[in-house]
Structures are given as structure tokens and as C-alpha cells.
Amino acid sequence: KGCAFRRHKGETLTVEWSAVTGFSLEEHGQGAENLLATFEQLRPADLANVLHHLSPKRRAEVAAALDDDRLADVLEELPEDDQIEILGKLKEERAADVLEAMDPDDAADLLAELPEEEQERLLTLMQPEEAADVRRLMAYEEKTAGGLMTTEPIVLRPDATVADALARVRNADLSPALAAQVYVCRPPDETPTGKYLGTVHFQRLLRDPPYTLVSAILDDGLQPLDPEAALRAVAGFFATYDMVAAPVVDESGSLLGAVTVDDVLDHMLPEDWRETEFHLHEDDSVTVAEEEASDGS
What we know:
It is a single chain. By secondary structure, the protein is an alpha+beta fold. It has helices at residues 32-39, 44-53, 56-65, 68-75, 80-88, 92-101, 104-112, 116-125, 128-138, 145-148, 162-169, 202-207, 231-241, 261-268, 282-296; strands spanning 2-8, 11-16, 155-156, 181-185, 196-201, 245-249, 255-260. A three-stranded mixed β-sheet has the order 3-4-5. Strand 6 (245-249) and strand 7 (255-260) form a beta hairpin. The two termini are 26 Å apart. Mean pLDDT is 84; it is low at 4-13, 17-29 and 277-297.
């Protein structure tokens, strides 16, 4: 199989795995630091693909050399077996730090695969607020809106302005799906919030003056998701309303979190999709690289 690396905008170089040093079981003196320098520009999903093809020894070395945020992003893109293996080779204090840096829903999914005793040790080492979010997610069935949601969507009070909303949306740490809309709620601002009032979509934010109050441009006609809604119902909601993210609201009217379309797809695809479905055949990799170059021109 080939691996595509973007050299600059509009140009992609495709090489055979066998032609890239450091990927075989014997990495012939290729140190973890050299590998990091080689792949530091890769997206998390692509670096995860690289890690998956390394030997366990080299995979552990590279994981240990990554900073917490980078390793957290990469772990979210790895198959569960690789996640568990890497986390198990970290010191418990660092493992807890990495779990804190992960999206709460991904951290909850990973912890759910560990023995209960180990789960509790790691949760105890995490910051109390971060651990509380993860525990809350672990209380829901995995394939429900509550189990799929993140507890960290963009939440604004009704007296916030369009300018305030756009400032939050600009946060580079947000995924495109989470940045696509903001949720307007009464205090408290952290999930579970006060009463959920409605959603403001990013496109609407672009159409209104910056001093406009978000409470004046709410989409309050869309029924939010129930935390117990099954995966199939959640997927149907996204397909019906052409959404990339959706609020999850409890019986009392509090916003619990938001489900994003990537998490819906992740749980609908076969369990081994990261290892099989995503990887391209040689001919396909060239075609996709050409199409990406054409799209970027």
C-alpha cells in the first residue's frame, strides 16, 4: 500500500510503505526523534496510520516522545487495540494527563475498554472536572446520543453577541463540526447547563451585524436529541435535517452536550474500519492525490 504526503499546496508525493524507513519491524537505527521530525506536519489521522504500522517498541517510543495534546489527538484516531497498548505503556500520571487532553467522549470510550480497577485509578488521577465529564458519559450506553456526545460544545448566554459567538468559533482547537454552531443557554454555562434556548448556526452568524444578540437569531424549532436516543435514531436525525452537530438535552431542559457527525459515522462503520476500510489501494491513492491537487488549485 502507498502513503501520500503533501509537500505544499496542490502537490502530493505518493511513495510505497517499503520505501519509507522506520516502518518495518526493525527500524535500522531510525530514532523516534527522527520519525517525529519526519511526520510532525501530518494530520492526527495520518500520524495514527503511521503509528499503526510501526513495531510495538517503536510505537511506544514515538508515543512517549509526543506531547500530551498531540498524543491525545492521535489516540482518538487509532484502533482500540492500539489505544489500549499505548496507554498501558505510559506512566499512570501521564496516561491521566493524556486522557484529560482527549475529547471527553473519546476518553470515555477508551476507558470503557479497560478493567474497572484501572478505570478508577486513572479517573482518580485526572482533574476532578475532567473526570466528572468522563464519568457522566460512561453512565450512558455507548451507542446512544448520551454515549456519543461531547460535553464541551460552544455554550453562550442569551445576552452574548454575534461578535462573542464568532470569537468562540475561531478557536483553532475546535473541530469543524463543533464550530458549525453555538448553543444558547441560561447559566450555568458548563454542561449540564441551565435551560437550553436554541441553536445559532455559523452561517447565520455571518449574516448578522456583530452587535446582534444571539438570542435574537435562535433556531429554536429543531427538536434536540434525547440522551437515550439510539444510534440509528441519531443518524436519522442528522440525515433528515442535514446537520453536522446536534444538541443533546435532558428532561429538565438542560443542555448535556452535542453529538457530531464524525462520532456517528465512527460508531456506524465496522469496528475495524480504521485498519481496513480507510486505507486505499495503490491505484486509488494516486487517483485521490490527483483529485486533491486538482481541488486545491
